[in-house]
């Protein structure tokens, strides 16, 4: 399961050994939010996550675990306990058309050279989808061996399963990959791969923001124009946030739920927090439980 999660788009938000020292003073900058009102009999919670990080940098705050304990359901972006979804994910990382057949000889030669910097080559990756290529960015940017990587949602999932909670997903693998492919075609992925060190620097800023619970800064970094233009933001954030915000009310009405989504999805005028507020719910940042 870990290998499958690691290959998801979620690994864009990888981690670093950089530690955060100063806590952000903005009370709205919290990774945990309570959802109440609008007919809910029990509150639900939304936790912004940082999908992949080194074990030395990994922490799930006690308030997050307490919120999970209080709820009946655990809802992830994708339900990793569904065998059909896991099979779909494996399939999505392969392509029927080789990468080299989608490129000119000069472009293929350039990609092969780029891939050498990632410890592989085009021959080995030729049957991968463009998103299989994209996963290399996180693996290279995370400053620790794969054996030392921790997966935020998987740790939460372990606790949810242990507590016998029901597990759901906000979207299907196919839906997620459709969004990713709208945002990043093969040429766009190659441009991302070229960034190399710039990505590592940007991701260091992201992990510092996350550890400070500064989800506003995390959202801003994620929207950096070097990794996301307006079209890509619409496909990766806005459209998905709107889809999730349409599904969440029905889930919360039935039972108290704990939602775990990437931290960059929380903030902004099209973020999950604001979208649920516009539907009449009360959203409160949680400092402690």
From TrEMBL:
GO terms for biological process: negative regulation of Wnt signaling pathway; proteolysis. This is Polysaccharide biosynthesis protein GumN. Its main location: membrane. Residues 1-22 form the signal peptide. One of its GO terms (molecular function) is metalloendopeptidase activity. It is a single-pass type I membrane protein. It is found in: Membrane. GO terms for cellular component: membrane. Its cofactor is Mn(2+); Co(2+). Keywords: Glycoprotein, Hydrolase, Membrane, Metal-binding, Metalloprotease, Protease, Signal, Transmembrane, Transmembrane helix. Transmembrane segments: none annotated.
């Amino acid at each position: 399961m870990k290998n499958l999660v690691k290959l998801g788009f979620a690994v864009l938000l990888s981690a670093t050994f950089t530690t955060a020292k100063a806590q952000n003073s903005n009370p709205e900058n919290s990774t945990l939010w309570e959802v109440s009102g609008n007919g809910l009999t029990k509150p639900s919670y939304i936790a912004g996550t940082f999908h992949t990080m080194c074990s030395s940098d990994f922490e799930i705050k006690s308030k997050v675990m307490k919120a999970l304990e209080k709820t009946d359901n655990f809802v992830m972006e994708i339900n990793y306990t569904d065998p059909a979804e896991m099979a779909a994910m494996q399939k999505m990382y392969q392509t029927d058309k080789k990468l080299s057949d989608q490129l000119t000889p000069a472009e293929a030669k350039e990609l092969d050279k780029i891939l050498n910097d990632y410890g592989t080559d085009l021959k080995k990756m030729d049957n991968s989808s463009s998103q299989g290529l994209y996963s290399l960015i996180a693996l290279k940017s995370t400053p620790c061996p794969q054996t030392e990587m921790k997966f935020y949602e998987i740790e939460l999932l372990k606790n949810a399963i242990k507590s016998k909670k029901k597990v759901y997903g906000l979207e299907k693998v196919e839906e997620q990959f459709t969004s990713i492919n709208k945002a990043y075609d093969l040429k766009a992925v190659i441009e991302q791969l070229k960034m190399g060190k710039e990505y590592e620097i940007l991701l260091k800023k992201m992990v510092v923001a996350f550890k400070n619970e500064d989800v506003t800064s995390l959202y801003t970094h994620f929207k950096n124009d070097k990794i996301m233009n307006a079209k890509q933001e619409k496909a990766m954030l806005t459209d998905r946030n709107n889809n999730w915000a349409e599904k969440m009310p029905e889930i919360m009405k039935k039972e108290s739920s704990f939602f775990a989504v990437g931290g960059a999805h929380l903030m902004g005028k099209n973020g999950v927090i604001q979208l649920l507020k516009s539907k009449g719910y009360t959203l409160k940042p949680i400092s402690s439980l």
